[in-house]
Amino acid sequence: MSAYSPYLAAFTSRFLLMMQYRSAALASFLTQCWFGLVRVMVLAAFYKGAAQSDSTLPLSFAQAVTYTWLAQGLLALLPWAADPDIAAAMRTGAVGHDRLRPVDTYNLWYACTAGRMIARILPRLLLMVLAAGVVLPLIGKEELAWAPPSGTAAAMLFALSLTVAVALSCAVVMLINITVVSTLNERGVNTLVVPVVFILSGALLPLPFYPDMARLALFIQPLAGVLDIPSRIYSGALTGPMAWIGISLQVLWTFTLVVAGKKWLSYGMQRLEVQGG
Amino acid sequence: MNTCRLLNRYFTLSIRSQLQYPASTVMLTFGQLISTSIEIISIWALFERFGTLKGWSFGEVAFFYSLLGISFSIAEFVSRGLEIFGTQFVRTGEFDRLLLRPRSAVLQLIGHEFRISRFGRLLQASLILIVASQSLQFNWTPYTITLVLWTIAGGFALFIALFIFQSALAFWTVEGLEAINAFTYGGVYAGQFPISLYEHWLRMFLTFVVPLACVAYYPVLAILGRSDPLGAPDWLLPFTPLAGFIFLALALTIWRHGISKYTSTGS
């Protein structure tokens, strides 16, 4: 227990700090509501005008709608930027303090990243569930609303898959953080990471909608595990063995990226030049 | 010194300072080009998957998208000062210095920074316009070119107005409201699709409240020679970008009202 307590403390302090930013959460929530509504209406138009029947499409309309709302509600889960505090620590030289602490830097940063991420996800997700899952049906827009999980099994698998997704996403953020260690500036890497993460996670468009020839490649790449796999398990588009394969892929990628990140960080730290004076 | 020469001075200074770091400027512009391109990829994938969008083709949607993108990128090019007005001018009290100078505050804020990186989106949107007119086998005539320029001008006015609204909010809340992003970035997103797809309330909103449809959907119908499936009269369509300028006048009125109530925060 005591070996873990510094990381737990880092996690908790970061979590509680981020929970203070209520107005930021509210502003991004409003923007996401708007984007979600427009996306869902556009999808509805595509589905209504589709020549094919629902069954030949990779997702049913209800599944696509729920996927879209989940993507908006979980936007803070996406690993699209370096942890701003760690980036600032690199710029100012405060990273020297982290190096002096008798704890593993990777684990410490990972705990901070996770605390920040979960604190950013929770309020936005709850608000989005309330708006898209409760308010929309109440005003008579069931067909555009966020539906509950497709069943008990789906709900439990989703809970598992989402937990792994958070771990995986933190591992990706750590890779971005470590890039900042060697480049000292987060702006460049963030600019390049955002579009990649947006497309490959499924936040821009559910991955099954991309051309069929890309389907397998999109499924086995690491970022599918951040959003696409949990969302499809939730809505019942991935069930049974396929759901388990999806979760295994998530676990595998998390493990691989954590190991790779640890190696890379220790390499980067050996040639670290602390900034500032 | 008259207004134009002053703006020109601001412009030269800002561009020169960014060109001090050519590599960084090129990278940022390239990043803009890439990151603003992803939306069109998703639209393309949806058209690949579904074939058609209630009678609208990919080329037509790309046309809406590109004109909005061009107007928005030009507006973003000049609007940096307005965007950071709340956090960097009002909260710090720096705005008082602007007020002391014998020129309009909006003019000075626009002169604050011209962001070269926004050429990334401009380039991207212009390329999409070429792709769209290729795919529609569109016939460019002096009339359509004039209409396109007029539409872009209207869109530019509308987006500048949104940025002015955002900064004017800072007079009341000290910080600019980020929620206005729903109308700027979200507006570009909503306006790139034919509004006939949307539910009634959203169509009304995009026509009469934040008239994004008037600087994309309606004029592009006129440019493409289509009639509005919802029955807006054909003769009216080419005049709709005027709504962007009316919106700008409204924003400036609110801005002036805000300035008259302004009390400094800083020392």
Give me the secondary-structure category of chain A: mainly alpha
What integer value in Å does the Rg of chain A equal? Answer: 20 Å
The assembly state of the depicted protein chains is: heterodimer
Structural class of chain B: mainly alpha
The mean pLDDT of chain A is 87
Percentage beta strand of chain B = under 5%
**Relative helix content of chain A:** over 70%
Tally of separate helices of chain B: 14
- Structurally, the number of domains of chain B stands at 1
Amino- and carboxy-terminal Cα gap of chain B? 30 Å
Approximately how much beta-strand content do the residues of chain A carry? Answer: under 5%
Q: Assign an overall shape of chain B.
A: globular
- Helices of chain A, by number, come to 11
Poorly predicted runs of 5 or more residues of chain A:
none
Number of strands of chain B: 0
In round numbers, the mean pLDDT of chain B is: 86
Largest sheet of chain B: none
Give the domain tally of chain A.
Answer: 1
Computed CA radius of gyration of chain B, to the nearest angstrom: 19 Å
